[in-house]
Design brief:
15% of the residues lie in helices and 29% in strands. By secondary structure, it is an alpha+beta fold. The protein has one domain.
Length: 254
Amino acid sequence: MIYCGNLSALSGLKMPILGGLNDVSATCCGFAPIVTGSAMKCISRAQGGAAHLAPLSMKEESMRLLEAALAGPNCVVSVMGDHAGEDADEIFNRKKADINRWGKTFWLMRSPKARPAQVQRMCTTIPAYTIFVEPAAKGGARPTTAEEAAKEYSDDRVLWHRLPEGLSPVTGKLDAGATALVFDMMTTDASGTLDLWEYGELSETPKPLRFVLGCSTVCSVRKDTKSHPEKMKSRYRGIVAVARFADPFCVWVR
């Protein structure tokens, strides 16, 4: 199931509404929001009339999120692994519960190829997504061991805010490079395969998408890199989850 936060308090604000391959911007009070558990599709409400809601199955919801992520010009691609004694399923379940309860979740990472300013720029004009993929080989993603819990976040390292009370632990190595991706929708029910040769790094110097130890999360751009000599040897990766970015998109944590 897609987990989407409570939108009732956001009536009148501009926000992206998921609509198949292309997300559209709509005013919440003019559309019926996707809500957890009821699996409703956002359909325009005629002025002064009642909302028209068409049910979507959980699988359809999940595939719409995946299709939107794959259709975008940019995304973050992240190799999923275990963390501090938790397996991937446990981690995703905690994060989806955060979204269900608080409307957002924070995903700690320390990759030099997905820094806050870069992720924020990628997310400011259109809805953007993170696609979580399997490692090249089972056990290929080294489990992280640090489990310090962050208490504050900042989008500029100047003004700091407390993480919501009751949010599940945002854990990892809390050094100067500790950051977190911010999501408001997430699904682990979308099945598919990502072709890494169709993506390159989102950088000034065009490069094929590559993962190395300590750098398993990368800001990516749609780009044919199959003829590049430095492309990844393992071309296809199974997709394990998809998440949608939410403002402020990527933050520093401490």
